[in-house]
Design a protein that fits this description.
Number of strands: 0
Helix content: 55-70%
Oligomer: single chain
Distance between the termini: 67 Å
Largest sheet: none
Radius of gyration: 25 Å
Strand content: under 5%
Length: 171
């Protein structure tokens, strides 16, 4: 059955790629013919706005990066994640993950740079400060720097309990 299904799909696949179909195995109904006869552009209401297109490309790159990461190909994942961060610098969680991958590969300068870029892109959020604090405590082994970033988080966001919790944790 699988071979029969594949044989039915083969002509439609070749039509989509501009090749002539095999004459001896053309099925009675070939959905590929419907698409190969002519290309029609999408209706205007189906087109994405530039911002939506940027976001959809970033999302596709993110999931491709996740796929590479699950296949243990962190270098390809980092390339995709870097493109996502360029398109969406406000993604603090992804910046933290990229920094973690760099730090695990003993590229601490790159990891710190990613986190500092995230901080610059998100001045109104407390989490980039805590990410830098964690980085300096865990990877860079600089508890005084970790404490400095935790203090900055508390100073700038005095009503944020997680910033206070990080500061208490460091003392």
């Amino acid at each position: 059955r699988a071979m029969a299904a594949l044989a039915c799909l083969l002509p439609s696949l070749t039509l989509l790629h501009g090749q002539a179909p095999a004459k001896e195995s053309t099925p009675a109904f070939d959905p590929g013919v419907l698409y190969a006869e002519g290309y029609r552009p999408a209706n205007e209401e189906m087109l994405l706005l530039p911002e939506a297109e940027r976001k959809s490309r970033a999302l596709a790159l993110f999931y491709r990066g996740r796929m590479h990461e699950s296949n243990l190909d962190t270098e390809k994942a980092l390339k995709d994640y870097a493109k996502v961060l360029k398109a969406d610098p406000g993604n603090v969680a992804l910046a933290r993950r990229v920094a973690q991958i760099h730090a695990d590969a003993d590229r601490k300068k790159e990891a710190e740079q990613v986190l500092k870029t995230s901080l610059k892109a998100n001045p109104g959020r407390y989490s980039p400060y805590l990410n830098l604090s964690d980085f300096h405590l865990i990877y860079a082994r600089k508890p005084e720097e970790a404490l400095r970033y935790a203090r900055q988080a508390v100073e700038k966001f005095p009503n944020e309990p997680r910033a206070h919790a990080k500061l208490i944790e460091l003392y």
